[in-house]
Specification:
mainly beta; 382 residues; 13-stranded antiparallel sheet; 25 strands; ten-stranded antiparallel sheet; 7% helix; 2 helices; AttH-like fold; single chain
């Protein structure tokens, strides 16, 4: 009696192993390196991690200035993440996260919100068109087939914008569209570096009835995806700068635990949309000032003197407001600073800067003995 039972159990075990392997998403297979294809690559990909970033500056009819960030993240459940010994990806294959913030520069006020479809909300990202949503937030292709429509709510406020590309898409990295992320691998990375912003800022909303103000300005849209490993480095600093002479600059700096940069890369986009690569030897970046968050204990570099000799660039990058920190530990486990900045010097303009993990590695407080640490949410998803 025992032998037939053992045979049945072994057969059942083999069946379960084969079934689980068959259900393993293709997302876990290596992503081939290929040329960027548009508009297809504006859509969602079969990639372990992907995000769509919208940032920018806008003015209302009374010339009050604002900054905004709206971000959608998509990631697949790691195969090793289990619930009662059952791989979670068999229950929920992927999840989505959204972050939204508005900086009221005239009134020196910063407001933020975060959402995730792990528990409370519905989220999706289409692989056949630009159509990403999380609860009532969305980014989608407009009727003209070129512009992006975005919408998000925050307390009693909301934005409803149409963003129209004014330049061809920027393909960062080498080959074009493939950006090195040092020890983490590589990422597909494309941007609309200058988009005309038109739409509404909705305020004093009660039961979906709001006061509407027409607004206009400039936006920037980043899209990245791949199977790069975010655990391989301490954090990154990212600059997206829009100059008043209709040129733009992106810089991407990968940090190690001691605060040094293991990778610096970037792109300068000319008036006609042509892209020139920037590498580590091209730039000089000096920190002029820092800011400490009383909420998280993070210490950030916050004002910089950036020089790029081959561009005749010598500028000061300074925050429009110090307190633009995103504490998103409830959705991603990450603390980061993402905010509107002003540019002065040899070129002037506006921009956005992102600084991650300075709560784990406070600026000026780490050295060669500092070990690589991980936030608890990312560690639990390994």
């Amino acid at each position: 009696m025992l032998e037939p039972m053992r045979t049945i159990l072994i057969s059942l075990g083999i069946f379960l192993i084969i079934t689980l392997n068959a259900c393993t998403p293709k997302v876990y297979q290596p992503i081939p390196i290929r040329a960027i294809e548009l508009p297809k690559d504006d859509y969602s990909h079969l990639a372990p991690i992907e995000w769509w970033y919208y940032t920018g500056h806008f003015f209302d009819q009374e010339n009050n200035r604002y900054g905004f960030e709206l971000t959608f993240f998509k990631t697949y459940m790691p195969r090793s993440f289990k619930l009662l010994s059952v791989p979670v990806y068999l229950i929920k294959e992927k999840f989505h996260v959204g972050h939204f913030a508005i900086t009221d520069i005239n009134n020196q006020k910063f407001e933020k919100a975060e959402k995730t479809d792990i528990i409370f909300y519905d989220g999706q990202a289409s692989d056949s068109k630009l159509d990403i949503s999380l609860s009532n937030w969305y980014a989608k292709q407009a009727a003209d087939g070129l512009s992006h429509e975005i919408y998000a709510t925050l307390g009693n406020k909301a934005i409803r914008f149409t963003l129209s590309p004014e330049k061809i898409i920027a393909r960062h990295g080498n080959p074009p569209g493939i950006q090195s992320m040092a020890e983490a691998g590589v990422s597909y990375y494309i941007s609309y570096t200058r988009m005309k912003l038109e739409g509404e800022l909705l305020t004093n909303c009660v039961l979906n009835i709001c006061q509407s103000q027409k607004v206009s300005g400039q936006a920037w849209h980043d899209h990245q995806w791949g199977n790069f490993n975010l655990y391989k480095f301490a954090g990154w600093d990212w600059f997206s700068l829009q100059f008043e002479n209709n040129t733009e600059l992106m810089l991407y700096l990968i940090r190690q635990p001691n605060g040094n940069y293991s990778e610096i890369a970037g792109s300068f986009i000319a008036k006609d949309g042509r892209l020139s690569q920037i590498n580590k030897n091209d730039i000089s970046l000096e920190v002029i000032d820092t800011w400490e968050s009383q909420a998280t204990g993070a210490i950030y570099p916050i004002t910089w003197n950036l020089k790029i000799a081959k561009l005749n660039l010598d500028i000061i990058v300074k925050p429009a407001l110090l307190a633009q920190e995103m504490d998103t530990r409830a959705s991603t486990g990450i603390v980061y600073w993402e905010g509107a900045v002003d540019i002065s010097g040899s070129k002037t303009g506006f921009g956005y800067v992102e600084l991650t993990n300075y709560d784990l590695y406070p600026y000026g407080k780490t050295d060669n003995n500092t070990e690589l640490r991980k936030n608890q949410l990312l560690k639990s998803l390994e």
